[in-house]
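Hi P.,

Sorry for the delay on this. The queue was packed all week, but I finally got your sequence through. Input first:
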Amino acid sequence: MQIDFSDQTNQLSEEDLALYEKLAQFVAQKEEVADNTELSINFVDNAEIKQLNRDYRQKDEVTDVISFALQDEAEGEVAFHMEDMPLMLGDIIISVDRAKEQAAEYNHSLQREMGFLIVHGFLHLLGYDHLTEEEEKIMFARQNELLGEFGLER
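Then the structure:
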């Protein structure tokens, strides 16, 4: 799996990025994502994610993570993918500022919080959601399972 990282904040170390790459690859393997799949993970500040949240979700507030799935099909649309072409899964946008705030609030490491947000965003790209109580139970249980197996528990 190809993962493109972009740290627009310049706040993350090479070690942090290596850990997040390893975590994303771990999730890809556990979720049986095809090897020719690509996604991007972008680290931004609160101002940037607030603007994205306002522009694309009509919510004028800071959030921690936004996922933009490129493989969602609209109703009646037919999925099309050529076998030898990479599958573009989508983009995960994470606010480093908000992750730092939440890590302090939940009393765990920034790496744990960033790991949670990466897994959360990745699962959204794979079709998981939390719009209903049942969906939330399934998605959050899977997040906790993956983070635990990887070793990023609270």
